[in-house]
């Protein structure tokens, strides 16, 4: 099979590799569409994200969909010919987190495109049966691939315990911010304030459910939000930008007793926070790491067509053009949101 391999930072080569064979409990999937994630870009540019370091050539890409073309021994719930979405993390199934349902915290997870595990910028992958989900005929390959970032937004909204009628602010309208906006809308938020530096991303945020937008290049967030909320602040803030200033602004944006959900990872390990303000306001600070138990619900939510998450696709590339997709994502941030790779 062909694969786009990251040889070292900023260098991707198209290689001919042996097609994988499914073991017992696994299926072989022909990949049809893969989204380019911000984490892929970090590995491409810098060769690491936090404690995860690329130490040998690796295949990136974890937002994937495809068609089952082979079945391993013992697989009973799937069959050849089914179109599927792939949940990219295969956990141990035995640790305390797997047993209590928070399997996203499993320390033994094998997650596609997270070193040392290869991802899906290739023609075929094998996955365990329990992380492969059939999709309806009406769902496109692109939508199925984007269930992965949609799941991050869904998990963030759930962690924030958003209830119908509450108000939300989202810091950063990249793909995850957009997915958070879509899920906040589906959860019944009465007000969704989208914040970014790029007007094109704010335009897209309106398509995904934002009722108000704030361009930080044109105004101060504190003043704009005071006007929008009559000085009250919002019930829930979702920080998806991964910037220390955005996190501090999110904390200042919520009402007394409000909640702040941290989704984005800042480029530094430590960030200064207004602790006296947080204590005085009795704020809840909540972390988000990937997701759990989201794929079946996400497939249902996206099957009725109420939300078209493929709107955020701004570029389509063949497998041979994977390097060009990375370059576009790095050098044209103002005009790129989600790049889609088609290994077929």
UniProtKB/TrEMBL annotation:
Gene3D superfamilies: Medium-chain alcohol dehydrogenases, catalytic domain (3.90.180.10), NAD(P)-binding Rossmann-like Domain (3.40.50.720). The keyword Metal-binding applies. Residues 7-337 form the Enoyl reductase (ER) domain. The keyword NADP does not apply. InterPro entries: ADH-like_C, ADH-like_N, ADH_Zn_CS, ER, GroES-like_sf, NAD(P)-bd_dom_sf, SDH-like. Its cofactor is Zn(2+). Keywords: Metal-binding, NAD, Oxidoreductase, Zinc. One of its GO terms (molecular function) is oxidoreductase activity, acting on the CH-OH group of donors, NAD or NADP as acceptor. Belongs to the zinc-containing alcohol dehydrogenase family. This is L-iditol 2-dehydrogenase. It comes from Aureibacillus halotolerans.
């Amino acid at each position: 099979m062909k694969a786009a391999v990251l040889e070292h930072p900023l260098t991707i080569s198209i290689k001919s590799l042996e097609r994988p064979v499914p073991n017992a409990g696994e299926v072989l999937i022909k990949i049809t569409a893969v989204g380019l994630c911000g984490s892929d870009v970090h590995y491409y540019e810098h060769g690491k994200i936090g404690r995860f370091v690329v130490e040998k050539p690796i295949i990136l890409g974890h937002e994937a969909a495809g068609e089952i073309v082979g079945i391993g021994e013992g697989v009973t719930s799937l069959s050849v010919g089914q179109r599927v979405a792939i949940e990219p993390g295969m956990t141990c199934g035995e640790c305390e987190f797997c047993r209590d349902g928070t399997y996203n915290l499993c320390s033994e997870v094998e997650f596609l495109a997270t070193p040392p595990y290869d991802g899906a910028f290739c023609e075929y992958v094998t996955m365990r049966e329990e992380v492969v989900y059939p999709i309806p005929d009406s769902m496109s390959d692109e939508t199925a691939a984007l269930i992965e970032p949609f799941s991050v937004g869904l998990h963030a909204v759930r962690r924030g315990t958003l209830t119908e009628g509450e108000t939300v602010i989202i810091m950063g309208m990249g793909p995850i911010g957009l997915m958070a906006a879509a899920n906040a809308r589906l959860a019944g938020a009465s007000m969704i304030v989208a914040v970014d530096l790029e007007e094109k991303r704010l335009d897209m945020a309106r398509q995904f459910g934002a009722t108000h937008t704030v361009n930080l290049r044109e105004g101060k967030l504190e003043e704009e939000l005071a006007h929008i909320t009559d000085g009250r602040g919002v019930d829930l803030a979702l920080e998806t930008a991964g910037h220390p200033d955005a996190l501090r602004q999110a904390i200042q944006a919520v009402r007394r007793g409000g909640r702040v959900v941290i989704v984005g990872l800042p480029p530094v390990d430590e960030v200064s926070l207004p602790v006296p303000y947080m204590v005085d306001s009795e704020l809840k600070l909540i972390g988000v790491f990937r997701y759990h138990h989201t794929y079946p619900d996400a497939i249902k939510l996206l099957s009725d067509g109420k939300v078209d998450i493929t709107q955020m696709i701004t570029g389509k590339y063949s497998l041979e053009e994977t390097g060009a997709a990375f370059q576009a994502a790095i050098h044209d941030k103002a005009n790129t949101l989600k790049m889609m790779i088609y290994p077929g």
